[in-house]
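REQUEST FORM: STRUCTURE PREDICTION
Request ID: SP-0412
Submitted by: Lab K.M.
Chain count: 1
Length (residues): 247
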Amino acid sequence: MATLRDGPATVMRDGLVSAMRARTRDLHTLAERSGIVREVLRGTASRHEYALLLRNLLPSYQALEAGLERHRRSPLLADLARPELYRAAAIEADLSVLAGPAWPGVLPLLAAGRDYADRAAAAGAGDGARLLAHAYTRFLGDLSGGRVMAVRLAASLGPLSGGLRFHAFPGIADVHAFKATYLAALDRTGTLVSEVTQVVDEAAVAFTCNIAVSNAVQAHTRTPEVVQAHTRTPAGGGVIDSASARP
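STATUS: Completed
RESULT:
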């Protein structure tokens, strides 16, 4: 298994994907156990909390997808600019369902969401090599863990009338085969990268940004003002807030 301590030669021998996986293994576990993502996976996130998470991930997807499209004719990124993976349009559609068409004025873009987007945009500078790390972190995560999130959300939030488009890939007939093809493309592209350790490091940065967004969303939704704004009264009486299902 390649690590950064082994140096670029070993990283390339074992493959870029193996190196990024090793570099981010602990961060991946932390991401699943942190912030609002943990609540989603436990089935205790509210509709508003999930919508706020999507709102703060949206700019990073927009930046990543714009970067890939800008470099789609380059040998480095041509095989990774796959519109069937792009999530920005699906997120916008979900937000309209979850928070209404006026969602841009209802759901705030937090500093962590802005920082994540800025980092993804910066990754597209120059030859765009660092976009490999963001594509690996976001798209492969969506094809894997994101599908688990969809099951949890469907169970905890009930029918959303199309509010789970983010987790649907209608343009991909066989998800497992597509993942294998995309991972192979990442490894092939990795052999063309001049500074491979920068790409591997960027994968860790992307995970760290994702964790920061998750924590920021959870912290924001637990402020007294937000809790009060999203308190609801069930048909049987009493008051239930967005955190009522948490232990």
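NOTES: The first helix runs from residue 8 to 14.
Reviewed by: T.R.
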